[in-house]
Design brief:
The protein is mostly helical. It is built from five helices and no strands. Helix 2 runs parallel beside helix 4. The longest helix has 27 residues.
């Protein structure tokens, strides 16, 4: 991010007229609903994140990046859990993946509400 973009982001945040955060909130909720729908709503959410990333300030783009990474990492975690159900440990790893997903979405929603980028976007953990 260049200095001019950072100054624009700070000016927008200072005046309280920041970008609309409705779509990122919807994507987080779709990720959470994916727990119940078997990931179908998460798929819709990641498509929205791919379409809208790059269209806002840097901190908002980081949320879209965070949401995209959350989708792909969750897909891996739940896929591994599905395979591990054959040896019965998959139920525990599935529960751990659900907790991971909920924590990650709550963290993202919290920082989105503060109009800042999520911390540690590149992590595989929370």
């Amino acid at each position: 991010m260049n200095e001019r973009q950072a100054q624009n982001d700070r000016a927008i945040a200072k005046h309280g007229s920041g970008p609309d955060t409705t779509l990122p909130i919807v994507v987080y909720v779709l990720h959470l609903a994916g727990i119940i729908t078997g990931g179908l709503t998460s798929l819709v959410g990641v498509v929205i994140a791919y379409v809208y990333r790059g269209n806002g300030p840097a901190w908002l783009d980081e949320h879209y990046r965070y949401q995209i990474r959350t989708f792909w990492i969750a897909l891996l975690y739940f896929g591994i859990s599905g395979l591990l159900t054959l040896v019965l440990i998959g139920f525990l790893t599935w529960l751990a993946a659900v907790v991971w997903l909920v924590l990650r979405c709550v963290k993202g929603l919290k920082t989105l509400n503060e109009h800042r980028a999520p911390d540690h976007v590149d992590t595989w953990w929370v």
